[in-house]
Amino acid sequence: MPVTSTPLELLKSWIGPMVRFGIVGAFATAVHYGSAMAAVSSGIDPLASNAVGFAVGFSVGFSGHFGWSFREQRAGLTRSLTRYAVVAALGFALNHGLFTLAVRHGLPTAPSLACVLGIVAANSFLLSKVWAFRRDRRQPDPA
């Protein structure tokens, strides 16, 4: 039997995770940046440093989203980690692709990057909410 929700319940089921996703994402981004810059300042190649920053930021982002942003969805750890890695890879590809198009078409850098980041963040939130952290219906409810 389908579960029915009031419009307010449906809105709450999206607003809370969206706000938490933004907070975790901002923190993970700051950690990525800080880690990458620390690696650069220690003499590591900038591209390698960015990879280090991405890995550290990814860890922070996954931990925060699994444990806080989407905790109500009670998804399995391994499944969520695998799917979140796909979401992150798609986000990076979309970011790089859209930003490359903007730069090559002579669009201003700062506004272009801001738009691209907004598009990627919205896409990442939607994929995380409806796919990466969704509990498999065959999985027993841990509550």
Describe the structure in your own words.
It is found in: Membrane. One of its GO terms (cellular component) is plasma membrane. This protein is an all-alpha fold. The chain has one domain. 78% of the residues lie in helices and 0% in strands. It contains 4 helices and no strands. Helix 1 runs antiparallel to helix 2 (46-69) and helix 3 (77-104) runs antiparallel to helix 4. The longest helix has 35 residues, at 7-41. The radius of gyration is 17 Å and the shape is globular. The model has no long low-confidence stretch (mean pLDDT 89).
Throw out a few tags for this protein.
single chain; mainly alpha; 143 residues; 0% strand
Number-wise, the strands total: 0
Number of domains: 1
Rounded Rg: 17 Å
Poorly predicted runs of 5 or more residues: none
State the helix count.
4
What global shape is seen? globular
Question: What gap, in angstroms, lies between the N and C termini?
Answer: 20 Å
Mean pLDDT: 89
Order of helices and strands: HHHH
Largest sheet: none
Amount of helix? over 70%
Structural class designation: mainly alpha
β-strand amount = under 5%
GO biological process, one term: polysaccharide biosynthetic process
Protein name: Putative flippase GtrA
GO cellular component, one term: plasma membrane
Pfam families: GtrA_DPMS_TM
